Amino acid sequence: MLNLCVFASGSGSNFVELNKFAIKNKTKIFLKLLISNNSNCGAVDYAKKNQIDYKIIKFSRVVDYSIYVYEMLNCLKKNDIHLIALAGYLKKIPIEIIEKYNRKILNIHPSLLPKFGGKGYYGMNVHKAVIESGLKKTGVTIHFVDKEYDKGPILYQQEVPVLDEDTEKDLAARVLKVEHKIYKRIIKLLINNRIEWVGDKPIIKES
User: Fold this and answer.
1) Active site residue: 82, 109, 127, 180, which one?
2) What pLDDT is attached to residue 95?
3) Interval 99-122: pLDDT, tens
4) Is the whole model's pTM more than 0.70, yes or no?
């Protein structure tokens, strides 16, 4: 069984969907922990209501960076975490965590990377930029995390149309529906050993 930790900073809708998925697949995966930098977010509220362990870990100028990293690493180790899924987590993952959990950290991003990725491209910022660009399609990307924002090896992408009448909220809602479906689907492939690496590229194996 894989122990899963979700990192989230906001409403936590993907966190909710991943918990439902874990409950349905309880012989293979257990959502053991939420880590957040925001004690007042929806993800933390959901964790409290559903008896999911959570930890608030913040970095600020008054906290030594090494203590911040140690607290995060120690929390993951104590909970015997095997896989990390980022779900709207707005802080950069420390390089020490990436090295320790190499090829074990997934992120979901609301665009077709490398377009509209990188620092500052999150949430409505992404959808606003897509609409302003005039492009007729956007999408969702699931990728493994490396030391650069949204630059890690891409595992899966799915397109979403951009309609002429779309507002940012319209597009965000349509993209989010796809996120909820494919994050669970990809993690299911992972726990069933259907993802392999060819060099530095992750490949989904045919069934």
Assistant:
1) 109
2) 96
3) 999 999 999 999 999 999 998 999
4) yes
Q: Tens of pLDDT along 156-182?
A: 999 999 999 999 999 999 999 999 999
Cα dihedral 46, 51, 53, 57 sign: positive
Which tokens sit at 104? 């074990």
CA distance linking residue 116 with residue 92, whole number of Å:
17
Alpha-carbon distance of 19 to 13, in angstroms, equals 10
Cα separation, 137 vs 164, in Å, equals: 11
Structure tokens of 197? 């690496």
Q: Dump the DSSP string for 115-169.
A: TT-STT--THHHHHHHHHHT-SEEEEEEEE--SSTT-SPEEEEEEEE--TT--HH
What is the C-alpha separation between 44 and 56, in angstroms, rounded? 9
What DSSP string runs through the chain? -EEEEEE-SS--HHHHHHHHHHHHTTTTEEEEEEEES-TTSHHHHHHHHTT--EEE----TTS-HHHHHHHHHHHHHHTT--EEEESS--SPPPHHHHHHTTT-EEEEESS-TTTT-STT--THHHHHHHHHHT-SEEEEEEEE--SSTT-SPEEEEEEEE--TT--HHHHHHHHHHHHHHHHHHHHHHHHTT-EEEETTEEEEPP-
User: Is there a catalytic annotation at residue 127?
Assistant: no
